[in-house]
Amino acid sequence: GAVVSQHPSWVICKSGTSVKIECRSLDFQATTMFWYRQFPKQSLMLMATSNEGSKATYEQGVEKDKFLINHASLTLSTLTVTSAHPEDSSFYICSATPSTDTQYFGPGTRLTVL
Amino acid sequence: QQQVKQSPQSLIVQKGGISIINCAYENTAFDYFPWYQQFPGKGPALLIAIRPDVSEKKEGRFTISFNKSAKQFSLHIMDSQPGDSATYFCAASTPTDSWGKLQFGAGTQVVVTP
User: Fold this and answer.
1) Which residues of chain B from 20 to 59 reach within 8 Å of chain A, CB to CB?
2) pLDDT tier for residue B10 given thresholds of 50, 70 and 90
3) Which of A3, A70, A74, B101 has a Cα at 20 to 30 A from A55?
4) Please, is B110 exposed, middle or buried when counting C-beta atoms within 10 Å of its C-beta (0-12, 13-18, 19+)?
5) Residue B92 has pLDDT above 80, yes or no
6) CB contact under 8 A, B43 and A46
7) Contact A51/B99, CB-based, under 8 Å?
């Protein structure tokens, strides 16, 4: 149980284009989902907290207009990187929680912006 | 600044040996302490978690030791196997944090040699 999927697993795009990443909780309802960014050999950096039906809460320093988060249902959250640039290349990971404690992580999405 | 300090940064252990990773925190409001295992190119997977009302929790070869007075907790991997080679992250959260937001340690890269 407690499986979280992400799609796509990797994506390559041209600079200036937008990319959408989906995060789904497959066997539980997640009122809260989190989006992280991870650079090589570093820890996870929380970008935003997403609650179903409400606006996401962004961490300090994260551009909300650049990283659009939508949590339209209890099993789906999306992260859209708008006007992507090479510095946005990273490993993006989502997590979902069926409760206020345990977070279950997706497999991650590798984004490369050319 | 990092609210959870993790050490060592990396660790090499022989097959069959014990891997020990330590974490320390300052915020006494933390009440949930999970450990995650991450393989390269994958999302973190929940390994084991503990709450402050117990001093030790064991699941298979993995044991968490918790010292509330010292504000420290550690992960012990007994009979380490090459398949345990991964990066391990400790984390902590408080009941009042937004929907269980986790504070992560910097991570420990464990290499188990045959």
Assistant:
1) 32, 34, 36, 41-46, 49
2) very high
3) A3
4) buried
5) yes
6) no
7) yes
Q: Report residue B2 as tokens.
A: 């990092």
Determine which of A4, A100, A104, A111 to mutate to test the interface with B (most B C-beta atoms within 10 Å): A100
Q: Which of A2-6, A28-32, B23-27, B84-88 has the lowest mean pLDDT?
A: A28-32
The string of DSSP letters for A63-101 reads -TTTEEEEEEETTEEEEEE-S--GGG-EEEEEEEESSSS
Over 80: is that where the pLDDT of B99 sits? no
Instruction: Tell me the pLDDT band of A100, cut-offs 50, 70 and 90.
Output: low
Q: Using a CB cutoff of 8 Å and minimum separation of 24, what contacts does A62-71 make?
A: A67/A35, A69/A35, A71/A33
DSSP states of B75-113: EEESS--GGG-EEEEEEEB-TTSGGGPPEE---EEEEEE
